[in-house]
Amino acid sequence: MSDPILTVEGLKAYYRVGQFGKNLDIRAVDDVTMQIERGEIYGIAGESSSGKTSLIKVLAAAIRPPLQVIDGSVRYDFGGRIIDPTKASKAELAEIRWKHLSYIMQGSMSVLNPVRRIEQTFRDFAQRPLGLSGAAFRARVEEHLDHLKLPTSVLRSYPHELSGGMRQRVTIGLATVCRPEFMIADEPTTALDVVVQKEVLSLLRTVQQEMGASIIFVTHDMSVHANMTDRIGIVYAGRLVEEGPTRTLFTQPKHPYTAHLVASLPMIGDTRPRPALEGRPPSLADPPKGCRFHPRCPMATEICSREVPPLESVGDRHRSACWHADEVRPLVEPAFDKAAGGVRA
Amino acid sequence: MRGYFLFAAKRFLQLAVVVFAGTSAAFLVAHFSPISPVETIIGRVSGQSSFSPTAVESLRATLTELFGYDQPLWQQYLNFWGRFIQGDLGPSLIAFPTPAMELVMRALPWTVGLLTVAIVISWILGNLLGGLAGYFQDNRILKSIGVVAIGIQPIPYYIIAFLLVILFGYVWPVMPISGGFAMSVRPAWSVDFVLSVLWHSLLPAFSLVVAGIGTWFFGMRALVSNIVTEDYVTYADLAGVDRRTVVGGYVMRNALVPQLTALAMALGGIFSGTIITEQVFNYPGLGSLLIRAVNGGDSGLVLAVSCVAVIAVASAIFIIDLLHPLLDPRVRVG
């Protein structure tokens, strides 16, 4: 039944910086293997500087020095057209961008060119992939905006004339106008207040369901994950430490880091103190030996500091990289349905 | 649109105030100059032949009346404005009795022509190269242009002018180094004359371009290397937007707004002339005229040159203020 649109195998991407004649590798993405199905929303969660953004950069083929792909492969399958963004030529990439693979970026305030009207931006971004021009193009864009319940008058506006929420909705319109099969959403709602956030999320979800597109959805906000994603991959210090269906991860985490992450979610009416993790995430230039989480892990034993735990199946579509996966229990009683109260249909 | 006209009207009022204050200041400075034009003329005339004291006395009275010095200051000031509005700033001294304004108008086309061409060329070249150097930061050719520009930038423009005169006037004498056109050509709208003017303006213009290009180059390079890290440029790249559109419409276009303002200021500054360049190349422009006026104690002519400069700079700023809301939609009209 598996029909992955994206297959990542053993991907290693390092920031290679020369410092005082010494080469330093910052292992932002280290041995990541995952698959994303057609029509699925796959969440990537993890704290700041865990390598989320670097992973996204590789997947979006936005690799710029000092970031380099050291090993592994990335494979998109756009309806039979196979492409590896880490090896493809610029011309090949230009052909798939926006047509098959689009991107919703963090910071809706600054992703639109301030001196161009929205219509001109649509023209720059979508005219070539859509292969339409003039009135036909304009009609297609208006129809699309109409469909997203956005007023077509935004086309005549400059970005600064729109509110933050409206701007992010315009960005979603821009990213979906070519009906791509795959979208990468990097913290699309982080700068918005919760009311606007909910609207933007349901818009994104509606469009995604209609088009049957896959989305990689990156955010550190676990409640957004509970609302949006079908599956989640938890990233810690450049590694994928656990992966599974969203509900399973919230109710039966099999990695102590996930258990803490889920437990950190505040619930209305629940005033119990949350168990916090000691310490900080490790330096990616010199990560700890063995399991990268072991210096902060309350369950760590001797093997954890010695050997890297493999990412192994612990249930239905559920994988965890922990030597003690069997012993992990949720830290607070599962409250997934409360967290996912909003958008999920 | 109504808002825009209101805004334009307000700015025009501002322009009027600036011109009024500037010319008034220039009038006062010229008036309190220790050199009296009357005594200077008398000195010049009586130095050549002997006059009877009564003749000198009546000459002095005539001249004092001509320049209006017998009236109180406020009356002179009002007269000045009365004549100023008609474009008359009294007779000049160094070319008495040619009106000062006529001398200015005669010198103006030379300076304006030379400087406009030089500034526009250095602006276009500097911004184009600087913009490309900021965008393609690894390009070898653009990098070496940057190194050359850093080398030339600190050299004062008059040194460059002298170097050019020495190189092309003495070491390898192929270019004219003095005057606005060849002596053998009559000033008229003929092909010969125009060619001669162009040929003569080549060296001074080149010295100004070489001296001016660095500022634009570095300014633009710095602006662009900031803009390429902006999210909207990254986003356009990620979307596979055509490279030329990104460079032109996203990077250069956005960096151009402050550079255009600076261009207007530079163009406004034209009217005070480039004193040293014109002196080096003996060019018949405003700068040379100003030097002659100062040396000859001709306060009326200095006043005329100053007034033209005040009006030109203020107008340039006025025009750019009017253009700004059109260039950058974020600039609110109001």
TrEMBL record, chain A:
Secretion signal span: none
Keyword Transport carried by entry: yes
Keyword annotations from UniProtKB, A to Z: ATP-binding, Nucleotide-binding, Transport
InterPro entries found in the cross-reference section: AAA+_ATPase (IPR003593), ABC_transporter-like_ATP-bd (IPR003439), ABC_transporter-like_CS (IPR017871), Oligopep_ABC_C (IPR013563), P-loop_NTPase (IPR027417)
Gene3D superfamilies (alphabetical): P-loop containing nucleotide triphosphate hydrolases (3.40.50.300)
GO cellular component entries: plasma membrane
Membrane topology, as annotated: Peripheral membrane protein
Localization of this protein: Cell inner membrane
One annotated GO molecular function: ATP binding
Main location: membrane
ABC transporter domain: residues covered: 6-262
Highest taxon of the lineage: Bacteria
SUPFAM superfamilies, per database record: P-loop containing nucleoside triphosphate hydrolases (SSF52540)
GO biological process terms held by the UniProt record: peptide transport
CDD domains linked to this entry: ABC_NikE_OppD_transporters (cd03257)
PANTHER family reported for this sequence: OLIGOPEPTIDE ABC TRANSPORTER, ATP-BINDING PROTEIN, OLIGOPEPTIDE/DIPEPTIDE ABC TRANSPORTER, ATPASE SUBUNIT
Name of this protein: Peptide/nickel transport system ATP-binding protein
TrEMBL record, chain B:
Transmembrane segments: 12-32, 110-136, 157-177, 197-218, 260-281, 301-323
Pfam families: BPD_transp_1
Subcellular location: Cell membrane
Boundaries of every ABC transmembrane type-1 domain copy: 108-320
Keyword DNA repair: no
Superkingdom per UniProt: Bacteria
Example of a GO cellular component annotation carried by this entry: plasma membrane
Keyword NADP annotated: no
Membrane topology value: Multi-pass membrane protein
CDD domains: TM_PBP2
UniProt entry keywords in alphabetical sequence: Membrane, Transmembrane, Transmembrane helix, Transport
Coiled coil region boundaries: none
Similarity field: Belongs to the binding-protein-dependent transport system permease family.
Protein name: Peptide/nickel transport system permease protein
